Every structure is written in structure tokens, then in C-alpha cells.
Amino acid sequence: MSKYHIEIDDSSGFCFGVTTAIKKAEEKLAEGHSEALYCLGDIVHNGMEVERLHRQGLITINHEQLKNLHHAKVLLRAHGEPPATYELAQKNDIEIIDATCPVVLQLQRRIKRQYEEVKKIREEQVERTPQIVIFGKPGHAEVLGLVGQTEGSAIVIEHLKEVEQLDFQRDIFLYSQTTKSLDEFHRIIDYIQQHISPTATFKSYDTICRQVANRMPNIASFASKHDVILFVCGRKSSNGKVLFNECKNVNPNSYLIERADEIDMQWMKDKNTIGICGATSTPKWLMEECREYIMNHE
Description:
Layout: E1 5-8, H1 16-30, E2 37-40, H2 47-55, E3 58-61, H3 63-67, E4 73-76, H4 83-91, E5 95-98, H5 102-124, E6 131-135, H6 141-148, E7 155-157, E8 172-176, H7 182-195, E9 202-204, H8 210-213, H9 215-224, E10 228-232, H10 238-250, E11 254-257, E12 273-278, H11 284-296
Parallel strand pairs: 1-12, 2-3, 2-4, 4-5, 6-7, 6-8, 8-9, 10-11, 10-12
Helix pairs in contact: 9-10
């Protein structure tokens, strides 16, 4: 028994898309074929989980390495990929194991359909070509996949102040990366509505994943219930940064750690309750390891 009350947040841990991608990787690795299984980019933004799957035989490669790969099996992670990746795979005789999240896949298709309509308008009147705008993080894997549906023509904005660069005399179609903040998305919508020309059309499509968006209020509530919060998350996770900041705003005694041995027991001094939570890319087993570490170092 621990002298602390330690609670692991039930709503933290892998989202559906990440769970499915990891399951697909594990199933393929368990088949035990002689050929290697590659993954294009880290399967999840969590170094510990990447290491665990690496020990099972999953090999992480980047896009440059993919170009030199032939007759191989490559898993595409939940973030999705642009059409160019599929074209290269076909050219190099690469078998794709597609673990793109269904929510992301649906969004890619919507943007592609929108782009086909925009292309028709562009052919007739270039100066009136509508703008496809994506609220997202530039360079993020999911965003690269979305921009790829528009042959690179979509405009990516990460912050409200960047909305000023849009041409408010032309139509605007606004989409969002699935893991972005719902509040900021609505602020962007409000700004565009206030500035769009009466002669232009503005349409916004709420494409934010609710499984991710709902974690914000959940994690704020969880952080408020404990003396100390240990937020377990890979440092590459953009979703993790957002959720951790929410914890920190609610509870100043919040600490971001990537692994159990980063825990400083001084954080727990004169405290009674400890909450352990994480991002959509944080495995449950890692949060449990953190609980064990505390109990073993009291």
C-alpha cells in the first residue's frame, strides 16, 4: 500500500486511431515472416512505446529512406499520408499496411473533394479561386497529409493572428487538424465571419476529433482533484503539450515526464494525492510504471 492516494486518469491514454495502428503493427510482427516491417515515422509520439515495438522488430524510417526502399512492407501510422506516398509505394512495389485513423481518412477525402471543386473554379476565373484553409500545425504529419490532398495549395494557419494573411475578398473554406483546440477554432471562425467580404462565401467544417477535444475539460477536472499531477507524455507530442498546459493552468504542481525515472520524489513532499495522466499517445502501461515507481521509492 502507498502512503499516497495515487489515481491514474481513466480518460488518458491512446485514442482509437493510435490503438488501431499499434494493434495492426503487433499483429503483423506476430506473424513472424522473415521480411522486415517498416513504419513511416514514429508510430506514436512516445519514445517508450516506439522502443517497445522496436524490440519486437518494427523499424522506423523517414520519407527519404522510403524512396530507396523496394519490395517491402510499410505501415502508415494514424496521422495519414499525402497521395505522393501511395504513388511512391506503388512505383517501388511496396506493400502498404494502412493504419490511417478513420477520422483523418474521412477528413482527407472531404478536403480532396473540396479541392476538385476549387480546381474547376480556378480554370474559369483565377482571381476568384477559393482558399482552402487548414487550422493546424505546419509540418505536422497529419497536416502534411491534408495539404497533400490539395497538391500543396492549402493555406495552413496555426494561430489566430495568422488569419490576417487570408484574402477576405475571396471564398474561404476552413477545416481543422483533428487534434486542435476547439476554442481556438471557434475564435478563428468568429474573426473570419467579421472580416469576410459580403461578396465572398465563408464555410467552416468542424473536423476536430471529439475523442481528443473532450479530453481538455476532462483533464482539467482531473488536475483540479489532486495535489500533484504527473503528466506522462513523449516530448514530440503536440497534443501532449496542449493537454499538459491545461493541467498546469489548473494545477501549478503539474510535471511533464517521459518516463518513470524522471520522477523527483521531492515533488510529492507534504502532498497526499497524486494524479497520473497523459496524452492520446501515452500508453497505459507507462502510466502504471510511474505509479509503481512512486510506490517503490516512498
